[in-house]
Amino acid sequence: MKQKAVVFDLDGVICFTDKYHYQAWKALADELGIYFDEEINNRLRGVSRMASFEIILERYHGEPMTEAQKEACCTKKNDLYRELLKNMSPADLSDEVKETLDGLRAKGLKLAIGSSSKNTPFILGQLGLGDYFDAVSDGNNITKSKPDPEVFLKAAEFLGMDPKDCLVVEDAEAGLDAAIAGGMECAAIGEATKCGKGTYNLSTFADLLKI
Ligand code: B16
Ligand code: MG
């Protein structure tokens, strides 16, 4: 690999929180009488919490909500989501992911997280990765969400690296767009491989060791 560091998206790359996001948004949508399904949930990948709620509200036909009401809805969703995240444990970190991360580190690469999620520290803690990464850039230190490059540029800054020396790993098109906008090469995994924007397409996480 020509880069000196790898910046990983969290949800959909290191771990899978989709089902918990889905359950929490579904409970809120049901309460508000809004149609919500897995397909709409897929559109929320890599998108910030409020932007996700705006997508859900496309199907809302009630009285227009104030910003304060929207915030309250997002807080309610997040409270339930965090309850569900308590089910996560180090057993949710696959051997493949852990061994690949260790393998990359053994090659001398710095490893960072670049996630839109404000729950990143909690999720990393649940997975037993609380102190693992050299830098963590997440929803708590950004003002603009993916596809804006801010979260990845901050990760590079926290690592003390030039963005062009960092490879981004992403499962969402918005994340690939963010990496490209930041001048970084990117490896697509999962759903993101379909859009053709990745510098590399990974069939498996362990393929990172072959770049
Ligand atoms: P939170 P990532 C993203 O994480 C998720 O993919 C997306 O579905 C979620 O809405 C977003 O984080 C915000 O998460 O509500 O926990 O702050 O893929 O960028 O790691
Ligand atoms: Mg993701």
Which stretches are low in confidence, meaning pLDDT under 50 for 5 or more residues running? Answer: none
Which structural class fits the helix and strand makeup? alpha/beta
Can you tell me the number of structural domains? 2
CATH superfamily of the largest domain, by name, is HAD superfamily/HAD-like
Order of helices and strands: EHHHHHEHEHEHEE
Sheet with most strands: strand arrangement: 3-2-1-4-5-6
Query: Ends: how far apart?
Result: 5 Å
List the total number of helices.
8
Number of strands: 6
What small ligands are held by the chains? 1,6-di-O-phosphono-beta-D-glucopyranose, magnesium ion
User: Remind me, CATH topology of the largest domain?
Assistant: Rossmann fold
Morphology: globular
Second-tier CATH architecture of the largest domain:
3-Layer(aba) Sandwich
Whole-number mean pLDDT: 97
Biggest β-sheet: count, sense, barrel? 6 strands, parallel
